Amino acid sequence: MTxxxxxxxxxxxxxxxxxxxxxxxTGLADPSSTVDELYNRLNGxxxxxxxxxxxxxxxTDAALVPTRGTDWGDNGLWRVLHNHSWNGEHAxxxxxxxxxxxxQLIASQILDARSNxxxxxxxxxxxxxxxxxxxxxxxxxxxxxxxxxxPSSALPEVITGQAAVDFxxxxxxxxxxxxPTVAAGSGDANxxxxxxxxxxxxxxxxxxxxxxxxxxxxxxxxxxxxSLVDDIAADGYAxxxxxxxxxxxxxxxxxxxxxxxxxGNRIFNGLHYNSTSIGGGGWNGFSTLAEYYDLYEGDPNNxxxxxxxxxxxxxxxxxxxxxxxxxxxxxxNGTTDNGGFEDGSNVGFGYLIGQxxxxxxxxxxxxxxxxxTFKRDFVDGTGASNFINNDETTGIRVMxxxxxxxxxxxxxxxxxxxxxxxxxxxxxxxxxxGDATAMVNELRVLRGATPLGAVSEQNLIDERGRELYQEIxxxxxxxxxxxxxxxxxxxxxxxxxxxxxxxxxxxxxxxLANPNLVQNPGY
Length: 523
Hints:
This protein is mainly α. The protein has two domains: about 325 residues, Alpha Horseshoe (Serine Threonine Protein Phosphatase 5, Tetratricopeptide repeat); about 150 residues, no CATH class. Helix 4 runs antiparallel to helix 5. The protein is globular.
């Protein structure tokens, strides 16, 4: 059967939406192909630079999309996310609601006994349903759920709080029972979940449970988080050296779950038009705040590599560096030849600041002929801080994936990895009254950073920021640590301290379609 109305509404007309099942549903003829559809949907949803990525990263201190000339104006679509002045008609807020509620419904159709799902189908569908419902809970605070055995005329019930968490946890337990064990380093070419992935998500839900229910973290939940991470480690997952290699398609011991989502958006959305010839150059949009860059060790004004790829500005590994030119082509896996250089290898890793260079070492220029030097600050022609009147070079750019490998359009985006699990365990220890210093320092030493004398909550959220940037966790992390509503550059002054912004509004058309939904406070 088909699911109708998966696109978002643009007005308040009541249309068939993601919560509607076609009349006469009696089960799926081929649940395995529908499982394939579910994962393909996730590929598109995660590969996008808009929608989920924008809501989780651009609404935080980790990312912003300034307007440069006429570029990236988009009627303020990107700016209102960063300055926290969005409303319920924002396209990305509507689309994420539609996408992940639709995932939930498709998964429920697979799990319907009339579809005769196999054990493998049950594992995959339970995982994706739990994942999708958790995203809705985390972003909107309430989940419309339709029982596939009810007629389409019945309104979806709405679950919140403990009931929502219990439902998601039950699905994850069912996923753990039915998904395969996938050993670390064995690769994940089909992008499917495993027992370790389901355990990772269960740990994530439990770590955030007090946010959904109110109150403080429960010691029993924190103990479960620790146990779940230990179970993941038992499958061989571990911290791995060579930070930027983790984000290549080759198998590694850190990646717990990845999707076959194209990473081109992650690469090109921040690069300047002249940064590389691959893909026709960058799109010159996304940047990060100087305060986020300053979380890392190293020279605040320079972040350079030498010709051999060694850091020369005292920076830790995760901050990356800008090379003085391209790397000679040797036929290394995933690379292509461009005039004797690895194509795209003039683009640095991590945080790009200062002068940028062509493959042959020539200093690059912007389109007006000025030096292509990425700058810390967002200023207009008078030197005043400005979100709108920027030139082509303002803002530090971020490059976790890199254009030099596999033509830059390889389908491999890391969703869950062990460093996140490791830091979740450290956090659970800290929130249980334990000392997380040794665990955090284990990661810091591996990443070439100075060990900390002690670890506080602020140290831990900063460490998560340094490790997990651009991995679609920042909003969730800031809310859990109580810092999402703090002040940062370009945030509207009236929104500083506004706790209503920790949830997005329910799209107005959905409120009209389902009276069981209640608009979130502040909207």
